[in-house]
Amino acid sequence: MKLKEIGNEAYKKGDLDLALDAYTRAMDSAKKEKSRDEDLAILYKNRAAVYIKNQEFQSAVVDCTKSLELVPNDLKALFRRCQANEALGQIEAAYNDARQVHNVDPKSKDIEPVLIRLHKAVSQKMTEMAQTSNKVKSMFDLVFDPSKESEKREKAADNLVYLARDKAGAEILFKEGSVQQIAKLMKIEKNHSIRLSLIRCIGEISKKDREYVVTILANCGVPFFLEILNTNDEETLNASSYVIQLILDRLSDAHVIKKVKEMRKNPRMMTSDERKWCNKVENERSDLIRNSKEITSIFNVLTSNCTSRTLTGEARDAIVGLIMKNCKVDELEWAEKMLKTDAYERLMEVASEMTEYRHESSMEITDNTRTVVGVCMAFCYEAMYDDKRRNAICEHVDKFIQDKLLDPSMESKVRCTVAITTLLKNAVDLGMGQIAKEGVIPMMLEMAKSDNYVMQVAASEALIAATAKKKDSSQILQQGIDVLKQLYKSSKNDHIKVRALVGMCKLGASSGHDASLRPFADGSTEKLAEACRRFLVNPGKDRDLRKWAAEGLSFLSLDADVKEKLVDDEAAIKALIELAKEGKQDCMYGIITLLVNLTNSYEKQEIMPEMIELAKFAKHHIPQDHELDDLDFVDKRVFTLANSGITYALVALSKTESKNIKELISRVLNAICKNPELRGLVVQQGGSKALCSMALEGNEKGMRQASQALARIGITQDPSIAFPGQRAVDIVRPICQLLNSEYDGLENFEALMCLGNLAALNDSTRNRILKESDFVTQIESYMFEDHMMIRRAAVQCFTNLCVSPLHVKRCEGKNDKIKYCVLLCGDDSDIEVVRAAAGALAMVTSQSETCCRKVFDSIQWSECLLNLLSNPDLDIVLRGVVIVKNMITSGKDIAEKLIETQIMECLQAHIFKAQLDEGSYKPDDQLKKVRDAAKETLDIAHSMKLIKTKKEVDDSPQSDDD
Description:
By secondary structure, the chain is mainly α. Among the domains are: 2-108, Tetratricopeptide repeat domain (Serine Threonine Protein Phosphatase 5, Tetratricopeptide repeat); 149-253, Leucine-rich Repeat Variant, CATH 1.25.10.10; 723-801, Leucine-rich Repeat Variant. It is globular and about 120 Å long. 43% of the residues are buried. The longest helix is centred in the N-terminal third of the chain and has 33 residues, at 111-143. The chain is 73% helix and 0% strand. Mean pLDDT is 83; it is low at 286-291 and 511-521.
């Protein structure tokens, strides 16, 4: 009962957190003490009231229901559940509760307006449902009748998608059995547009309710979704993949829980709304059924069909992509479940496929297939958090490789080598574990020396991939370099020559960026680059040759001479951009690495001068930068690439799941955005949209690079154009995260400048910044920064936030925000800080009487205001006059304090100065604004009878005190 009273008092005072805690503890105590049902019911309905205030309506419904189970027909519990249900949009449930309140207490005046309102809402909904039902029937008659005109059927199918997006429409479609009819129609329907609309319709219905998903799976069967996925059409493929993923998400809630866990890791970054959402998810969610029949069925179908010979290559990529995406979800545990099946062997079988080697039992694959399956294997390996389970994956891979090695046929050798190459490129730890096995390298060398084209291609690719880790590849280099040279010289097949060339390029790049170490003789690196260029720019060469040429250049571009020559080669840059625009994953890493090298945007460790001296003393080698890597040369290269349209290529490549690739893309875009003249070009070519996506999802370094690039864009470009719609709100958090004392001062400055511009954009962005309470506090802390530019940016950002009533309310609290603004107005060291601080004061005093009174918290308030009024900058003077006007308007007691100072004389002086200026040849418009504001201020003071006109003084008898 004591805890209940504490809760009641806290609720009355508006301290909802304390009330919630007190009621919850009271319930726990009541349950232990086995208190009366009536007492526990009161606690439930009281806590429900707190939930309603916090807008956690679902939790309120749960508590009211529990209260009513203990004490049926309790009026308060029914009324509160009615309120919560109405807020949730559950109109019928709310109406039923309202009717029950009326039945229990027919004389209640409180329930009458609610009952009338809900009755209208229910009637309106019933009418809408009837109208929607008629629309659905008419659409059905058209879509499911193949004899109707194609154009009308296509339009009707589109309308079904539109109807399914509405909750009522989806409900009717589901009840009318549309899913079963769609499943039947899809077996015979040939019209691409109609098929696509029907798939999207299932997706929209699946979004609405988990029970719908279970029924859809039961009626259609999992193989149905595999059938619609089996296509070459990109639109249909994407829609089908989306529906399958949507079904998995709906069944498991795994992605929602993952999001909650990620947010819980950084509680200081969570807004109050996000905390409420997390609490709601955790309270409402039932335990995930790990062995759910439906999820297991989908898992089995996907893993067993990834090797199906009847699938298109694009469908196979989509299936492996779905496995890859879901094996990262801890709650599903797919990576571990795959250990109990032959899934890893099946993935290895896909990894061993080769486009150059086709036979009767070959699977259809695309240029992306091996990359996708390799990344999938890497994700599965990373999902295992202990050595035991990682070793288990290795055992599955070992089994596949051993089976191939035991078979002496050419096909087995080729497939074994190709599978290892796939792992080496995408899952390095798994790949190096296989290539280190006895007999593997000798087999590859023998294959490379053979006259068989397929064996040469497979072996040369394997030797190139095997040098991924320099420390592990010395043995391979020693034995393989001669073979690669021989292949390049003797082979008449360009596909063999280009692979051997890339191997030599990789060896030539072994010194990295160190200009003092060159593994080849002078000029050899340039010759290799020229050979790669010939393959790249030759219009007669196929894509495979151009892809490998780009990869070779990515290694050679560590050399500054190659960088300069390549950037000046317009044809080569154009060919690279065209190759990148395809967005294919097999060439992605090579092109991005090449661009990172050309722009010098790679991560470079700073070396302290003391360490260099120590290295000299110890006679250790000290890396040297090439003179062509100086800042001027780098800027020139960046300009050339940006004007060549490289942003288009980067945007196309950014549609990847790889966080490492996203980091590299962010680095290149950030290097371009470093120059203000190029930022508009990045926005025009879609770079800002890609950066928004990468700033929100990726690894830590990549998100930081993308955020800095966005901040730079936001400084010089109009935010309404650069970040239209919701995008401006979405980027607030990433940019706020740049406010870190451990980061470079430039990053903090750019973040503050961008946030200042965003704060001036609209209420949505201002409110988003203000909801990040920790970051707002950090912005305010930078107002005390010693660095002049950082402090200026922070004060300007603070000023732009003052437009928001939320920020004004913060200033009204028990803090020194107004006091500090007043002190800044008296700071003559930075005129821009004074201007911004005066603007902030002008805005908050116009909105709040409390803020007007808080000006007096500063002992130096009079001197600071006089400093504004006597400033040579008329913009600052005008702000000062507005502040005085706001303060005088807010109350007579405040006005009296101002009258006692020289502020009135200053206002009169400005009026006099403006009158003199009016007679000049070209009157100053700003001075006129100052005069008008000053006159208005004096008129207000006169109306309060605090000052008199000269005539009033002359006409009235004066006492000695006057």
